[in-house]
Amino acid sequence: MDNNICPACSGELSTGVKWWHFVCSHCDYEKADLQPVINEVSPHTLVNETAREAGLRDIRVGNFKKLLGVIASLKPAGGTLVDVGCAHGWFLEAAMGKFDSLGIEPDEAVFNATAARGLPVRKGYFPDVLEAGEMFDVIVFNDVIEHIPDIGEVLSECYQRLNSGGLLVLNLPSSDGVFYKVSRLFCRADKFDYFERLWQKDFPSPHVHYFNARNLSGLLAKNSFVAVKTGTLPTLGLAGLYSRISFAGNLGAISKALIYCAVAVSLPVLRLLPSDIVYVVARKA
Ligand SMILES: [Zn+2]
Questions:
Q1: Tell me: the pLDDT tens digits for 260-272?
Q2: Cα 203 to ligand 1 centre (Å)
Q3: Can you name the CATH fold of 13-284?
Q4: What is the 193 CA–ligand 1 centroid distance (Å)?
Q5: Fewer CB under 10 Å: which end of the chain, C or N?
Q6: Are 261 and 62 within 8 A, CB to CB?
Q7: How does DSSP assign 81-147, residue by residue?
Q8: Distance in Å, CA 11 to ligand 1 centroid
């Protein structure tokens, strides 16, 4: 991957609001020069994995059901599906009733827990763990594609592994989201840097890309896909909210309680603002 070139429109990237942050002035794509460090021990201590899992479960499971409804409407006959970076297998469980499903997960501890629940999962990376000629009708990336530095390479692998008429599904954080926009606006001023938190700086696997619905369509067109459906999914729900606020681990109990109350009373208004989660379903061109 060329470090200074936008993967969506091939425009030149310029420095953003941090030394590690870069932006495309042509299509608003954003990039971070943050390296993934999966399976190294020390960054894991930053994250309370139990709280993280509990906090994300309710909102993610609800969003996965909505996304599966969209996929099933475009592939009513079902078929084979692979969920790349399936984590705890929540999407896999929802997909198994409609599709012949497989999960792929590189993190050893997470893989072991998911496999122990009897779910069809392989340990490793896409497409390395696939057999020669193994093809799919649907390839899904839930909160995964934004972690992969060479996004063009992985999209090319997807193209080769999809059957004719196959669907590629990307579900990821949106740079149009209200939390992202506000965090970027205030990122230089505040003590608790929520902008760095959203990019997962110093986390086991930080984000390296931020897209929106428009430049995602450009990225897909550049890689021989046609976006057939884009949409947003809710970012926050009341269930699991306190755990989510807790999982960065460096806030005091009073701060956590205050943030919880502020977010809880704001939820009805927040739901009217642009969501921080975007999805796109694309077909092979
Ligand atoms: Zn661009």
A1: 888 788 878 877 8
A2: 26
A3: Rossmann fold (3.40.50)
A4: 26
A5: C
A6: no
A7: EEEET-TTSHHHHHHTTTSEEEEEE--HHHHHHHHHTT--EEES-TTTTSPTT--EEEEEEES-GGG
A8: 5
